[in-house]
Automatic annotation (TrEMBL):
Belongs to the NAD-dependent glycerol-3-phosphate dehydrogenase family. PROSITE patterns: NAD_G3PDH. It is found in: Cytoplasm. SUPFAM superfamilies: 6-phosphogluconate dehydrogenase C-terminal domain-like (SSF48179), NAD(P)-binding Rossmann-fold domains (SSF51735). NADPH binds at residues 14-15, 45-46, 62, 119, 153, 268, 294. It catalyses: sn-glycerol 3-phosphate + NAD(+) = dihydroxyacetone phosphate + NADH + H(+); sn-glycerol 3-phosphate + NADP(+) = dihydroxyacetone phosphate + NADPH + H(+). The gene is gpsA. The lineage of its organism: Bacteria, Bacillati, Actinomycetota, Actinomycetes, Micrococcales. Catalyzes the reduction of the glycolytic intermediate dihydroxyacetone phosphate (DHAP) to sn-glycerol 3-phosphate (G3P), the key precursor for phospholipid synthesis. InterPro entries: 6-PGluconate_DH-like_C_sf, 6PGD_dom2, G3P_DH_NAD-dep, G3P_DH_NAD-dep_C, G3P_DH_NAD-dep_N, NAD(P)-bd_dom_sf. This is Glycerol-3-phosphate dehydrogenase [NAD(P)+]. It is an enzyme of class 1 (oxidoreductase). Pathway: Membrane lipid metabolism; glycerophospholipid metabolism.
Length: 354
């Protein structure tokens, strides 16, 4: 497949803008049919953000100090961004995606491949973002790809070497999107396990909230490594119950993203958890953050999905209890450590014992 001629990115936050930079940098090394690098057009909700990106090649609200390539353009008009796009990248907060798609469905080119950058689960439906995209746009799942991995936007915007995963049921499409996003500092691997890749990115945000709480309460590395490792175990249980592959959880979109998010002060989810651990209420935490911490919104849906599938997720359960005000962060350790003992080799739920 030839490189894309035009890529539209809907969402000019930190990851949407950074991914636009990745695609634009990648395009400078591969020309399309016309012999020109792909045109990358970002749709920004706020006109002043679109103007700043388009005219000054900056997005100072989200990526302070980063210069964007000349072939990144921006508009506040979604039709202009989407017109003739071969690839449409979606990078808006997960809970707003469905409404956003309803507004643009008529102008989104039917032949485009749609790529989700989002790491959230829709509340009420428990739907993954790729499922929301397929149902709202009436697309076959083979036309939808997901990008996920240890991808803190600011590090990538600073061109620090990073790997990622492009997942799509159609392996040719995954390879095409990966080639379009392959920049000197960004190396995407392909994977056909969309469920596993997507679930890894969703649940790590909830586990990062828990690790952040440990930080906020002044706990050390033993505690955090214990939460990360058992967090991976419960992520793996849920992903495999939904049809994801266990090996995916040992890869970039599983372990890789979990480690990056739980250890980085750049992570919004870990930061939100830290503030909860410092005794702020969930409302105070949300009010103090200007960017999206998806775990705060998705945790309930993750737990709901786990219960519907008979999967035990004790860390997620404790995080949801803290978010609901039913459990204090100081009581969280007692609640988790007081559970019945079990074998680490037992990958079933505790209640499965016959
Ligand atoms: N930032 C990262 O490092 C990173 C990395 C990987 C994945 N992600 C995921 O990408 C998604 C987007 O994250 P982000 O970091 O770019 O978020 P962000 O908070 O930086 O930006 C969100 C963007 O969406 C826009 N927006 C907000 N509400 C909206 C609405 N109601 N309708 C339409 N647009 C709206 C905002 O104006 C902003 O442009 C999230 O699911 C996140 O988990 C983020
Ligand atoms: O800042 P966070 O917590 O949303 O994490 C960003 C990315 O998902 C890390 O891969």
């Amino acid at each position: 497949m030839k490189p894309p001629r035009k890529v539209a990115v809907l969402g000019a936050g930190s990851w949407g803008t950074t991914f636009a930079k990745v695609i634009a940098d990648a395009a400078r090394f591969s020309s399309n049919d016309d012999g020109h690098p792909a045109r990358v057009v970002v749709w920004a909700r706020r006109p002043e953000v679109a103007t700043e990106i388009d005219e000054r090649h900056r997005n100072s609200s989200y990526l302070d100090g980063i210069e964007l390539p000349e072939n990144v353009h921006a508009t506040a008009d979604p039709s202009e961004a989407l017109e003739h796009a071969d690839i449409v990248v979606l990078a808006v907060p997960a809970q707003t995606l469905r409404a956003q798609l309803r507004q643009v469905a008529d102008v989104l080119p039917r032949s485009a491949v749609v790529v989700s950058l989002m790491k959230g689960l829709e509340r009420d439906s428990d739907a993954r973002m790729s499922e929301v995209i397929c149902s709202e746009l009436g697309l076959d799942s083979s036309r939808v790809a997901v990008v996920s991995g240890p991808n803190l936007a600011m590090e990538i915007a600073r061109e620090e070497p990073t790997a990622s995963v492009v997942a799509c049921e159609d392996e040719e499409i995954a390879a095409w999107v990966a080639a379009a996003a392959s920049a000197p500092y960004f190396r995407p691997y392909t994977n056909s396990d969309v469920v596993g890749v997507e679930m890894g990115g969703i649940v790590k945000n909830v586990i990062a909230l828990a690790v952040g709480m440990c930080d906020g309460m002044g706990m050390g590395d033993n505690t955090k490594a214990s939460v990360i490792t058992r967090g991976l175990a419960e992520t793996t249980r849920l992903a495999s119950a939904l049809g994801g592959r266990i090996e995916t959880m040992a890869g970039l979109a599983g372990l890789g993203d979990l480690v990056a998010t739980c250890s980085s002060p750049l992570s919004r989810n870990r930061t939100a958890g830290r503030l909860l651990g410092e005794d702020l209420t969930p409302d105070e935490v949300v009010a103090s953050m200007t960017q999206t911490a998806e775990g705060m919104k998705s945790a309930h849906a993750v737990l709901h999905l786990a219960r519907r599938n008979d999967v035990e997720m004790p860390i997620t359960e404790a995080v949801v209890a803290v978010l609901d005000g039913r459990l204090s962060t100081t009581d969280m350790a007692r609640a988790l450590l007081g559970r019945d003992l079990k074998s680490e080799q037992d990958h079933r739920n505790e209640s499965d014992d016959e």
